[in-house]
Design brief:
By secondary structure, this protein is mostly helical. It has a single domain, classed as A middle domain of Talin 1, CATH 1.20.1420.30. The chain has 12 helices and 4 strands. The strands form 2 sheets. It has a two-stranded antiparallel sheet with strand order 1-4. Helix 1 packs antiparallel against helix 7, helix 3 packs antiparallel against helix 4 and helix 3 packs parallel to helix 10. The protein is globular.
Length: about 300
């Protein structure tokens, strides 16, 4: 199939999948009697990060875990500095500080922990297990909070059928994963035809392509007025990418890479997350979105310059 047709088909799948998945996620939150924010940070975040997980396992199994690392770290910058930024440009996001008090500190710590573990140039299996233990601790905290909310909530009067919710989530996820694969294939083919360097393709197009599920879910959630899902899914996805996906790759095959090679993605990933902290009024405005887009533009420039040396 023509590369441009693949790209167009991927975009169409992203729109369909995002709509179905957001509907399913909101229904799941009602059915489970917990806030959409927790669903966004856990179920939605994990599901939309499935392309990164697939890339991570495949790359590590063939002895190239550096690809997994680059995709995960690059996707974390894309998630915040491009995807969340676009949602903010549409309109600001209302997110009280209390709603991110669990996820935001962990999302900030992810690039810091990764940088510390990479000082010696190797992310060993032991380092991977350490990252997995931190991830499990965060996940347990999210489950405990969800159980507290569920026990305190009133029973839902039957409008949300579990079967329909599950079908919407699964169908939406299938479309989203297919969209990511189609967009990566189409965009990579177009880039190669223009003679763009393979490293640049991986650091930009593949990272954006595997983030298509987050992009579609975040933008559609924003357009539907579900701000909690938008921000929760982005923060949760970054935690999942940084602490679980990278850790899985390291456990399968230790990752050897110089600190300088990962520094650009780690620094910009940290800066982007810090810029998402809500104001005292619990609001993240359009100006913040424009600033994040500028951060992403500088990030791309930094990658190009780094590659040229």
């Amino acid at each position: 199939m023509n590369d441009y047709a693949l790209l167009l088909l991927g975009i169409i799948c992203a729109g369909i999948g995002g709509e179905l998945f957001v509907r399913g996620a909101v229904g799941l939150a009602h059915w489970a009697r917990i806030t959409p924010g927790i669903i966004g940070a856990t179920v939605v975040a994990f599901a939309t990060s499935s392309p990164e997980l697939s890339v991570s396992i495949s790359a590590a199994m063939v002895g190239k875990p550096q690809i997994a690392l680059g995709d995960a770290l690059g996707s974390n910058v894309v998630n915040v500095a491009l995807i969340l930024a676009l949602a903010l440009v549409i309109s600001g996001i209302q997110s009280p500080r209390d709603s991110v008090k669990r996820d935001f500190p962990v999302a900030v710590l992810v690039p810091v922990i990764t940088a510390v573990l990479f000082i010696d140039g190797v992310l060993s299996r032991l380092d991977g297990l350490l990252m997995l233990s931190i991830f499990i601790g965060w996940l347990v905290a999210a489950v405990i909070e969800a159980r507290k909310q569920r026990s305190a909530a009133q029973e839902i009067l039957g409008a949300h059928r579990a079967g329909f919710i599950a079908l919407s989530c699964v169908a939406g996820l299938v479309f989203l994963v297919a969209a990511g694969s189609l967009i990566v294939a189409g965009a990579r083919g177009i880039a190669v035809s223009f003679g763009i360097d393979e490293f640049i393709i991986g650091a930009t197009i593949v990272a954006v392509g595997t983030s298509v599920p987050e992009l579609a879910t975040t933008l559609i959630a924003k357009l539907r007025g579900h701000d909690e899902i938008s921000l929760g899914a982005i923060l949760g996805s970054n935690i999942f990418n940084g602490l679980f996906i990278v850790a899985v790759a390291a456990v399968i095959h230790p990752i050897t890479v110089s600190w300088r090679e990962v520094a650009v993605a780690l620094v910009f990933g940290l800066v982007a997350v810090v810029l998402t902290f809500p104001t005292r009024q619990g609001f993240i405005g359009r100006r913040r979105g424009m600033l994040l887009l500028m951060v992403y533009a500088v990030y791309l420039t930094a990658i190009l310059q780094h590659r040229s040396f």
